[in-house]
Amino acid sequence: MPIRAPDLIVTPDVAAVVERALGRAAASRIASAGRATDVSLGVEVRRFGPVAATLVRRPRWYYGYFGGLTGLAADDWGAVDEATAWLRSERAEPRVYLSPYTAPAGAGDRFLGELSARGFLPSSFMSVLLAPAGDADLPAPAGLEVREVGGADRDAFLDIWLAPVEEAERSPFRSLARHEFADWRAFIALLDGEPAGVASLFIGERVGVLAGAVTLPSFRGRGVQTALLRRRIAEAAGAGCALVAAQASPGTISERNMQRVGLRPAFGQVLFVQRTAVAAGGGETNGG
To answer: Under a CB-based contact definition with an 8 Å cutoff, are residues 214 and 257 in contact?
Structure first.
């Protein structure tokens, strides 16, 4: 039977743990990719009080996604202003993911008002899905094998992960991808012996974070991602995790695959992007 979570209640404390785990997972990816020596993303992280600002100076492919702000929950707007000023000085667009649990208790409307006054506007939405870690115990489709990546599987993993990139442009991304998941456990699915899909697992805060899923187009609709989800959920339980968590765009196939094995939407996140910068005198100025 799929994992069921009828008693999983998302309290502010649970949400805070999950958001920390998601933040650590994302930070590990960009930090590891940033250590590639033969191709540089120009990654730098600076702290402004409680706020951390991540700059990706050369945001190739999707790596710009990892740039932005974290730590706004402390309600320190002076630190936010310093962090956004630095990002803008580097010609990077300040961005931050926020959930209903981000603002300090009782500060919801005021918190959003402060963001709006600084030119931050909603840009896109994500669902955060949760389930208890455990064994989904679903029969695997015939001919489908999932195994942890190691040795000879590494090249096949990279080939699938980079499938969305034009072949002529893959060389620098191969180096970045090889570093990116250094702190993650990677898995590959084979269908009738042929590499078909990949996905990864990060362990932090006793939460297993599920991400990095790709299926080759010719193998879609054949249970590849369901099998990869089941395996990672079981591995998270074996690593001592209480929960598994994942992010997905609402209404997508990815979200439906997660729900099929028992993950349930727990809360939403909104990406806020600063379209205008606030001048020292309180007015607004176009971003540079």
So the answer is: no
